[in-house]
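> @MW can you paste both from yesterday?
MW: sure, first one:
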Amino acid sequence: MVSSAPSNATPLCFSINSTPFNHSHTITSAYFSVVFSGLGLSSNLFALVVLAKTFHHTKSRSRSSFLLFLGGLVFTDFMGLLVTGSIVVSFHITHFNWRQLDPHCHFCNFMGMSMVFYGLCPLLLGAAMAVERFVGINQPFARSTVMSSSRACSTVAMVWVTAGCISLLPLAGLGSYRLQFPGSWCFLNISSKPLEMTFGLIFSLVGLLSLAVSFLLNTVSVITLLKVCCGQDRAQRRRDYEVEMMVQLILIMTIASVCWCPLLVFIAQTVLSGSELNIRHLLLWLRFATGNQILDPWVYILFRRAILKRVTPKMDWSRGSITSLYPTLSTSFRRLTRASLRGTIDRLDRDRPNPDKARQEDTPLPVQDATAVSSSI
């Protein structure tokens, strides 16, 4: 007679700690979870409404692509809080028993996948936005043909697919998801065992690499933008929207770095050193990381042109470019343009065999005002 496995065998997701946990710690209180989730959901929902209205009225292709990336980021943060927050709040209100509710670890695996997926997506989207702005500022003509609205949507979808594939790795045997203290959430098993360590390093290094790419490309973009705004070609391209987008992107990158770096470094350091998992530090850095989902939408809500107009009403934000804010720059550029055109015509006359006849046949080039030139671009 073949013996079957004992019915009381501990499932894999419960094999580290036994439930129920002692959930008397203040950082895991129901009040904190409800307020935290409610604030994050309302902030992201408000940002989505503002983004939708702005996208409907925008006519700039580069700004439309950036708004699609930003909309994907805010939507991802909203869904992350909705999925994981509802589970955590339900636990703190009902104190359900995970073993009775989820004897086969399906629910725990789903939450662990959600934590990994919604954790990596903002970091990967931040890197994708940094690449888009880098190309838009340094190679504007190439970007206009490469990054359309449909291409931006495809890039956001690729980020979601990439993060989803990484979150599915434990189901394929690389790592595992375990119930974590105080029993309200599941996350990857932070251990020095080979498979667990590999998955922990993949999660940490993908996040840290995304932050590094964002920092490098955003730094180059800011330097380039400063050179263009302060250099001789400052009047040739529209820059007010690009400055606005770069300010928002820099703040998103800074918030992501402050919120996520401690947790990512903590996971990598713990699995590499083989030391015992510090639960208190894990909970602390997790709170830092989830704070990113609340702060992201406020970057766009507070740092956009409509708000900046009210903060600095004396600055003329109604014109098309930064040079229009400074009339002396427009005058200097107009003089420079006229001098360049006059010199070019003289050189062409010297090179032609019959300058008088050629000048009669040519149509004179109109000289536009610098403000009009920058506004049309």
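MW: second:
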Amino acid sequence: KFFKIKKLGQAEKTELDAHFENLLSRADCTKNWTEKIYRQTEVVLQPNPGARIEEFLYEKLDRKVPPRPTNGEILGQFMLEAAKEFGPGTPYGSTLIKVGDCQRRLGGAEREFLQTSSISFLTPLRNFLEGDWRTISKERRLLENRRLDLDACKARLKKAKTAEAKAAAVPDFQETRPRNYVLSASASALWNEELDKAEHEMRVAQTEFDRQAEVTRLLLEGISSTHVNHLRCLCEFVEVQAMYYSQCHNYMQELQRELGRWAHVRFHVNSHPAGSPTDPSTFLPLNSPSLLETDALQIEEVQPPASGTRKAKVLYDYDAGDSSELSLRADELITVYTVPGMDSDWLIGERGNQKGKVPVTYLELLS
């Protein structure tokens, strides 16, 4: 059922059938690619080889890996400490606090992603390599030993048959030495006994080989279940990865909005130096209605420069902070240009009949 006999010179070799060979090939392919995917996923999740070795040693010692801050969390902590030194009330210090807090949240999200990915994806792959595959390999080695035993029994049986046939040949009754006939009959009886023993040993070897082949076949067919399990784990890994990148994207958008609002305030302050008759802080807060109306009036009066305009693609959604700004939606195209004296972090954007200031960091300028 599981084998065929192939003659190699004068020896006979028991070979597995095509279906069994396909199962073996599929199992080897699964093991090789699972190992490669597992190793490379480890590299992606933990690029530091020293940290990977440390985690491996802790795992072998059956000890819990001590908590280690991510690079993002360390960077965020450095920024927050620097802000204390520079002064949290200064523009640089306050921005360091905003960015540092965002970096710490990004680092926390990364740590959660690494832990979840390890449990949902790496662990099942490792369990296959260190559990199921080792069992399959052990049973395959046993099957190979059973095959070698069976081949040896077949060779012994073939030899016994040949000798028995030779000994059983009809003696020459006209032989002048009858003693030769007696010896021939005795040898024939001995070879008959040897033949019976060889046949018995071969039947036992064949039974053991068939039993081991069946055990190995069932394990190899279980590779299909392994693929189903790894598919489920792969989908979970993709979900976790998508959630992580989405979370990071949201954190960065929130940070950009905060920095954009701060840059907007700086634009107003730079446009009206403190202490001058036109300094808005001399008369009222930056968000007072009268100031917004004045800005809106100024924006409406702005005209494109003679040097021309450019197209820009919006990278992220942006909600206008006041009536002087233009709200943006991701992936839309707008016309942009600058005017003399305008802060470099901002441009004038136009979309149809709408016009307003837009932050440069939200745009991709097109040639």
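> thanks! The first strand starts at residue 3 and ends at 8.
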